Amino acid sequence: MIALKLLPQNARASIKLEPLWALFGPLVTYFMPLYQKELGLSEVQMGIINSAAIATGFVFYALASPITNKLGRRYTSIIFDSIAWSIAMLVWAFSRSFGWFLVAQVLNSVVRIVVVSWNLLITEDATDQERAAIYGWIYVIGAFGGLSTFLGGIVIQKFGLVPSMRIIFILGSLSMSAMFVLRFIWTKETVPGQYLKEKLKKEPFFKLVLQQIPSARDALSDGNFLVMSGIYILANAVLSIDFFRILYLAGKKLIPSWAIAIIPAAGAISCMAVFFLVLPRRTHIAHEKSLKYGFLLSFLFQGAFLLIPNRSAVLAILIVSGLQTSYFLIQTFRDTVFMNTVRSDRKSELFSLVQALMMFFTIPMGWLAGWLFELSQNLPFILAIVIYGLGFLLSAHLEKRNSAQETGSSG
Q1: In 187-312, where does DSSP find H-type helix?
Q2: Which CA distances in Å does 403 have to 43, 132, 287, 332, 340?
């Protein structure tokens, strides 16, 4: 694994500043279901909000590549991150009903534009090996946010859920705003970003949006792109199910609140152990194979999750933290494999396209997860087992395809 100081400037700056987001992002995501439930939302309303976020996210992903190429990676990131987090966090802070949460979630969906611009900002000028290290650092810092979730749980227990969350949202808005400004100052536009920004500055925006159609048609005839799209869709689908995990542990498995608060911290420690101790010793393993192992481990841990005995706090902590670590592997190597197999001049449009497809095909998942949870609290997590199993099969197929292509090109 490449050391942080050896990574490109944009990646170094973004990684160093990522804790300003990670202190609050995982925390508010983890406790959001309880916050919404405390303010009177039903599981179906939560699912509708999640589906609305996915639907609007699809639209924003469709616009992400033209906006990113027109404005540049840095300007796109600071503008739309401010809307998606700085403003949305304040709306969440003052939310009182379904309508407030719906507006906040739509605002937060603007982050789909930043997913494209920011991923390009931190990886576009990097080598293939550097990208694996960059994504590893980013996702392990995100997992490190689990420690702040543990501290947040202590605060919530002491001062109450709703008042604590309102303060956390406000502080998070301030912290993230500082991060966005500093990142803009400490980074520079990527080489492809500079080229495309200059090339397209006189092109009408609507024309750039329409130009994606023939490019998308070509991409959808590429077998590797279709397999990667399937992997992204499956990995995103389980997030709508994960939203209900904390409700399942507290309501069905009767896991005590102290254990639920510890789970993200335990997951963070597990992810860091894998990142710093295991992955550096496994650099010889192909990224596709590591992705496959991530899905396999997630499949096994998700199955074990359903078998957790009631009130078994220790098992809940071990199994859910293991599941979080497995998903960390999926995220890290999914993005690495994709970025390493796409031509530099097509990264923005194809990454935007794969993200748009991912959102489009998972639009019903928020509602479906909520509906299944109301029918039987086990059902969403049975579906998650199926999804991880399909992900394993797809990633195994991708590994064979890429291995065969490398053998053919070397021959």
Answers
A1: 191-200, 205-210, 212-219, 223-242, 245-251, 257-273, 287-306
A2: 44, 18, 11, 20, 14
Residue 221 domain-assigned (yes or no): yes
- Asked, for residue 4, whether it belongs to a domain, the answer is no
Residue 323 lies in a domain: yes
What's the rounded Cα separation, in Å, for the pair 97 and 288? 44
Quick one: pLDDT at residue 329?
Answer: 95
Torsion over CA: 231, 52, 95, 109 (sign): positive
pLDDT surpassing 70 at residue 337: yes
Q: List pLDDT tens digits, range 232-242.
A: 999 999 998 99
DSSP state of 85: I
Q: Is residue 1 part of a domain?
A: no
The dihedral over CA atoms of 93, 113, 402, 284, expressed in degrees to the nearest 10, equals -50
Residue 38, pLDDT > 60, answer yes
H or E segment at 277?
Answer: none
State the virtual CA torsion across 328, 329, 335, 340 in degrees, nearest 10: 150
In terms of residue numbers, what domain contains 194?
A: 9-405
Q: Which amino acid is at 208?
A: L
Report which of 113, 75, 106 is spatially closest to residue 88, judged by C-alpha positions: 106
* 224-239: average pLDDT: 94
Cα separation, 200 vs 96, whole angstroms: 44
Q: Which amino acid is at 289?
A: K
* CATH code of the domain covering residue 32: 1.20.1250.20
In degrees, to the nearest 5, what angle opens at C-alpha 280 toward C-alphas 355 and 283? 70
- Tally of domains within the chain: 1
Q: Does pLDDT of 409 surpass 60?
A: no
Packing angle, helices 365-375 and 379-410, rounded to 10: 140
